[in-house]
From TrEMBL:
Its EC number is 1.1.5.3. It comes from Glossina palpalis gambiensis. Gene3D superfamilies: D-Amino Acid Oxidase, subunit A, domain 2, FAD/NAD(P)-binding domain. It catalyses: a quinone + sn-glycerol 3-phosphate = dihydroxyacetone phosphate + a quinol. The lineage of its organism: Eukaryota, Metazoa, Ecdysozoa, Arthropoda, Hexapoda. One of its GO terms (biological process) is glycerol-3-phosphate metabolic process. One of its GO terms (molecular function) is glycerol-3-phosphate dehydrogenase (quinone) activity. The keyword Oxidoreductase applies. Transmembrane segments: none annotated. This is Glycerol-3-phosphate dehydrogenase.
Length: 508
């Protein structure tokens, strides 16, 4: 057994080191062969947030937008922010409210995926490895860009078999190694005694010890809103409760029909109107096929939705600052307990489902999670149905890649597809990689539309979400320094202004 373990450990470690070196060499090669189009431009002053009525007026003004994004979840909001900070005239419409879809129903983790890295190493799968690496880099930039909505979270992997200690330890160290200088904090081993001290409700019997590693946790609904509002402050027109009913086409002069706008309805007033745009982006998550079929009713569906249920339990089910995750239970599923706003979220892996606007968890799914979590808790903790304070179900927009005709297998990462009439569909991926997904989508959009922006990215990784500058943690970042300078200028200007007192009214 010891020699087998030794072999597994050495193979895993050498595969990771090999992949890290290969990736580093590739990245260096790639960066030295990429023409840097970015042109240093002075930062633009952000405008004040305008009201929804004004946003609607902008939308109905008849002016042509560079891009019209459909969907105000993580993906659509990210696209709006990326597009507007590149200088594109941007509009976003969301049929319901921002983050009302999957983006507020996630597990709230900002992660690369320990399980995906395990698959990458054991299967010597380079593509999977690149996905984890990308997500780990995005994890760091998300934590930096919105420290008021996201924070590092230690997660414990309980170990019940002695041989799993070196196996998990090597695996988690590889996770840290792949993150490189973008790692959140280093992982460590805990003895049984220390593990129980930190997580007293953990099952003691046969516990050998635990490994603790770090990922991020975010307030997903507020994060989505922050991204949409930040886009609005940079000048994007973003409207909730505006649904796309129909896509409009025109002849492009070469006898081809291309998209030129959309017919929408404002659900607050019932008014229908048309929005003109050079390019339309479909970022509707699980509803991706409904928009694709508005463009071309004959195309095949690509979305294979699967739903995941979470339950909220009282805070005493988990320590306030430590999550628990078993990345592969005996029957191959993931189970987790995570602290969340002084409560505990518990859940397990997703199951295939139908797409609906308000998916609701079934009683069976709730009972299943309750029965699963019993295996990880001390016998003294009685798991009762009455402890379930709330539950939700979210639909994961898994898709097959329409760029690959030969396979109907589900894409492991996000896909960007451009239809014959120029509908750009961005689908799949995960919350953690929303920024990278947006960047790839807008890269595709700028190629489609007549613009001289040509891939310029402004502020990119230094971009902070709205309200982030109020937090002490980011006061040293470039963006915060710029904001401070702006504020100082504003204060100085106000100081110079004459103070006038209005004496016409009564009161004080
Ligand atoms: C159970 C579960 C747990 C998850 N946990 C994590 C996690 O911990 N970490 C992580 O990184 N990822 C996680 N994910 C994945 C992540 O949540 C999703 O990938 C992401 O939220 C998808 O965002 P989206 O914007 O593409 O879709 P959505 O958030 O669903 O947004 C699409 C929007 O389009 C709108 N729309 C649809 N049709 C129209 C129309 N005709 N006109 C206008 N608007 C329209 C909808 O109203 C909706 O708001 C999880 C997913 C699930 C299901």
């Amino acid at each position: 057994m010891a020699s087998r373990l030794y072999k597994v450990g050495v193979t895993a470690l050498s595969a990771t080191i090999g992949s890290v070196v290969a990736s580093w060499t590739f990245d260096r090669w790639n960066s030295s062969h990429t023409v840097n189009n970015a042109v240093a431009r002075p930062p633009k002053r952000k405008r004040k947030l305008i009201s929804r009525d004004e946003q609607i007026q902008n939308l109905q003004s008849g002016e042509e937008f560079d891009v019209l994004i459909i969907g105000g979840g993580a993906t659509g909001a990210g696209c709006a922010l990326d597009a507007v900070t590149r200088g594109l005239k941007t509009a976003l419409v969301e049929g319901d409210d921002f983050a009302s879809g999957t983006s507020s129903k996630s597990t709230k983790l900002i992660h690369g995926g320990v399980r995906y890295l395990q698959k990458a190493i054991l299967g010597l799968d380079y593509e999977q490895y690149r996905m984890v690496k990308e997500a780990l880099a995005e994890r760091a930039s998300m934590l930096d860009s919105a420290p008021h909505l996201a924070h590092p979270l230690p997660i414990m992997l309980p170990v019940y078999k002695w041989w799993q200690v070196p196996y998990y330890w090597v695996g988690i160290k590889c996770y840290d190694l792949v993150a490189g200088d973008r790692n959140v904090k280093g992982s460590y081993y805990l003895s049984k005694r220390d593990a129980l001290e930190l997580f007293p409700m953990l099952k003691k019997e046969k516990l050998v010890g635990a490994i603790v590693y770090y990922d991020g946790q975010q307030d997903d609904a507020r994060m989505c809103l922050a991204v949409a509002l930040t886009a609005a402050r940079h000048g994007a027109t973003v409207c909730n409760h505006v649904e796309v009913l129909e896509l409009l086409k025109k002849d492009n002069g070469k006898g081809e029909q291309v998209l030129c706008g959309a017919k929408v309805v404002d659900h607050m007033t019932g008014k229908k109107f048309t929005v003109k745009a050079k390019c339309i982006i479909n970022a509707t998550g699980p509803f991706t096929d409904s928009i694709r079929k508005m463009d071309d009713p004959t195309i095949k569906s690509i979305c294979a939705p699967s739903s995941g249920v979470h339950i909220v339990l009282p805070g005493y089910y988990s320590p306030e600052q430590m999550g628990l995750l078993d990345p592969s239970t005996s029957d191959g599923r993931v189970i987790f307990f995570l602290p969340w706003q002084r409560h505990t979220i518990a859940g397990t892996t997703d199951l295939p489902c139908e797409v609906t606007h308000n998916p609701a968890p079934s009683e069976d799914e709730i009972q299943f999670i309750l029965s699963e979590i019993k295996h990880y808790l001390n016998q003294d903790v009685e798991v009762r149905r009455g402890d379930v304070l709330s539950a939700w179900s979210g639909i994961r927009p898994l898709v097959s890649d329409p760029n690959k005709d030969e396979t109907q297998a589900l894409a492991r990462n996000h896909i960007v597809h451009i239809s014959a009439s120029n509908l750009i569909t961005i689908a799949g991926g995960k919350w953690t990689t929303y920024r990278a997904m947006a960047e790839h989508t807008i890269d595709a959009a700028v190629k489609e539309i007549d613009t001289n922006m040509n891939g310029q990215v402004e502020l990119d990784e230094y971009l902070q979400m709205m309200s982030a500058i109020k937090m002490g943690e980011v006061s040293y970042s470039r963006f915060a320094r710029m904001a401070e300078l702006e504020e100082q200028k504003e204060e100085a200007a106000q100081f110079k202004r004459k103070i006038t007192v209005d004496r016409s009214g009564g009161g004080l």
